[in-house]
Amino acid sequence: MDMDAFFTLVMAVGGDADGINLWGMLGCAVAYAGAVFAAVDGIGDHLLHRKDRTDPDAVHALRLKAGSKIAAAAITVITAGVVLMLDANWIAFTLLTIAALAIVLWVYLTYRQAARLQRNRA
Fold first, then answer.
1. What total number of domains does the chain contain?
2. How much is the average pLDDT of 25-42?
3. Of 84, 92, 51, 47, whose CA–CA distance to 66 is shortest?
4. Whose CA is closest to 108, among 45, 58, 52, 50?
5. What band does 33 get if pLDDT is binned at 50, 70 and 90?
6. HSE on the CB side for 49, CA within 13 Å?
7. What is the mean pLDDT of the chain?
8. How far apart are CA 63 and CA 57, in angstroms?
9. Is residue 73 part of a domain?
10. What is the helix (H) or strand (E) element at residue 43, kind and residue range?
11. Does residue 88 belong to any structural domain of this protein?
């Protein structure tokens, strides 16, 4: 399926672009916020506790827990993004996606820098 056919399908299913579904936009914003919190929690679990455990099973369990939070956040963002695209609400889709990616990236870099500083002190 080429991209023109895909966008035609999305626009046909989405309806008219004149009326923006504010309740759908609010629901997607809440979904994005929950996904950001889950991703931040998963990143924090992975970066802050990976050196505290000596038991290999505990390390693998912690990584699985962090990975599942990040995967759930990704699924939520993708689903909310599809809903916004089907509603043809491109402004909300763009702004929420940029904000979510910026926050997750900023938190990841901050936690990574803090972990580096903690290792240098030890």
1. 1
2. 84
3. 47
4. 45
5. confident
6. 17
7. 77
8. 10
9. yes
10. helix 22-49
11. yes
